[in-house]
Every structure is written in C-alpha cells, then in structure tokens.
Amino acid sequence: MIPQNRKSKTTTATAESNGEKYVLRLYVTGATSRSRRAILNINAICGEHLQGRCNLEIVDILQKPALAREAQIVAAPTLIKLQPLPLRRIIGDLSDTEKVLAGLDLKREAQV
To answer: CATH number for the domain including 84?
Structure first.
C-alpha cells in the first residue's frame, strides 16, 4: 500500500480537474429495484462528473457469482473504484451523491 502524505489545510484539486481515467465496477443482484436505482445513479454521476473518463462495468452477481466471491462482495449493490488508487468500496443504491463523489475522490474538500 502506498502511504498517504498529510494534506495541508488548503483546498485541493481532485481527479475531476486533472482528467484521470476511472475504472469502476458495480456489483448488483439481478433486476431488483435497488440494483436498477444503483445503475441509474452511477450512470448519472459518471455522465455529470466523469464525461468520457469512466470505464464502468456492471456485474450481476447472480450470473457471475465467482466474480463476487473474488472481490469479496458481502452486500449488493456495491461500487468498487479500481482506478485511480486507492481502491474504494461504496455500498448501497448510490442515491447519496455527495457520499459517492467523496468516495470517488471527486469532491473538492478542505483537508485537515
């Protein structure tokens, strides 16, 4: 694991402004309402905040259970940010946009 440097109390630019390519994988369970909401929500977030810089893969764990086991998925829907590092997991239907943006390091935040 790469150690993180301490951040100063300044507002930092995030991956949104430097054009990094995002690799995301969303694990869902069939065509449930939570799965559909998660897909709609992440597509909206990618469209608004990652135009052309997002590779999103949707994995139905009912069809590909081995992928879910390999990724150690314990709840669905689960979004995993594979790139850029660090790897992050966000569980739920992704309806809390601010939480998702923070989890993807797309939100400008004052660092403490």
So the answer is: 3.40.30.10
| 34 domain residue, yes or no | yes
Report the DSSP pairing between strands 22-28 and 54-60. parallel
Terminal C-alpha separation, the chain: 22
Structural domain includes residue 85: yes
pLDDT tens track for 20-74: 899 999 999 999 999 999 999 999 999 999 998 999 999 999 999 999 999 999 9
CA distance 43 to 39: 6
DSSP 8-state symbol, 59: E
Of residues 111, 102, 112, the one with CA closest to residue 15: 102
Residue 108 lies in a domain: no
